[in-house]
Amino acid sequence: MLIMNAVRVSKFEKPGPAPDLPAEAGTEAVQAIGRALEAHYADLVQAPLPAKFLQLLARLEDDKSASKAQGKRDALD
Amino acid sequence: MPSTSFKDDLLAETRNLRAFAISLSGSVSLADDLVQESLLRAWSNSEKFQPGTSLRAWLFTILRNIYYSNYRKRSREVQDSDGLYARRLTVPGDQESHLDLEDFRNALTKLPAEQREVLTLIGASGLSYEEAAVVCEVGIGTIKSRLSRARAKLVELLELDVAPQPPAERKVRRTG
């Protein structure tokens, strides 16, 4: 089964619509996988974001502002 | 020089970036290290981001490069040690086929990394084939073949019935 799939993929080499499993592999199975994948991923995306990322970006921005302000002071001196 | 909106844009993508990192590495703690390093690198290289292109794809590219360069060896040793997957969820709207999410996640970890990442990028992160090809540094044909193989492997691992099913029996038979 898998070996056959590996051979069959060659017909998908050209750009175009999304390939799916060969028809005999079952559209329903592919759809079930798609739903499970989306649910799995949605769970990850919805997980609380650690505060450290917000703090990191805030700090980076503050550093930038500080260096800008320092630049202005240097220009005035 | 990064603008204020660039910071906001990064923040808006961080949840997705983290979800991709967890999927890629199999570890929440490792993913958080990856996200932190990626955000730092994105910030210091902000001038290289081309406005109008996908920031998500750009960030994924950065994170993926860091992962494969520095972290891959660490990944599976610490898999899910931090319990994000402790919750057992059912798949919403799942009337036609009952796929236990825990089973699905276990199967996902058994895929080769390059198949799992393509499946995630296309099937969950919302990237186009073209964007996924850029992120993974391969051609679109390779993306499609990896996607096809990933699905076929999951069908096999989850023992999903690929033939017409009796109503009460949904994932019990292996036909391959």
Summarize the structure.
Chain A is mostly helical. Chain A has three helices and no strands. In chain B, helix 5 (113-123) crosses helix 7 and helix 6 (129-136) packs across helix 7 (140-157).
Q: What labels describe this entry?
A:
heterodimer; A: 77 residues; mainly alpha; disordered N terminus; B: 176 residues; 60% helix; 0% strand; globular
Report the average pLDDT across residues of chain B: 82
* Structural category of chain A: mainly alpha
Structural class of chain B: mainly alpha
Largest sheet descriptor of chain A: none
How many E strands of chain A?
Answer: 0
CA-based gyration radius of chain B: 18 Å
Distance between the termini of chain A: 75 Å
Multimeric state: heterodimer
Helical coverage of chain A, percent range:
55-70%
Poorly predicted regions of chain A are: 1-21
Shape of chain B: globular
Q: Provide mean pLDDT of chain A, rounded.
A: 71
Number of strands of chain B: 0
Written overview of the protein:
- The complex is a heterodimer of chains A (77) and B (176).
- Chain A is built from 3 helices and no strands.
- With 77 residues, chain A is mostly helical.
- Chain A is rod-shaped.
- Chain B is mostly helical and 176 residues long.
- Chain B is globular, with a radius of gyration of 18 Å.
- About 7% of the residues of chain B have low confidence.
- Classes of the chains: A mainly alpha (77), B mainly alpha (176).
- Chains A and B meet through α1, α2 and α3 of A and α1, α2, α4, α5 and α7 of B.
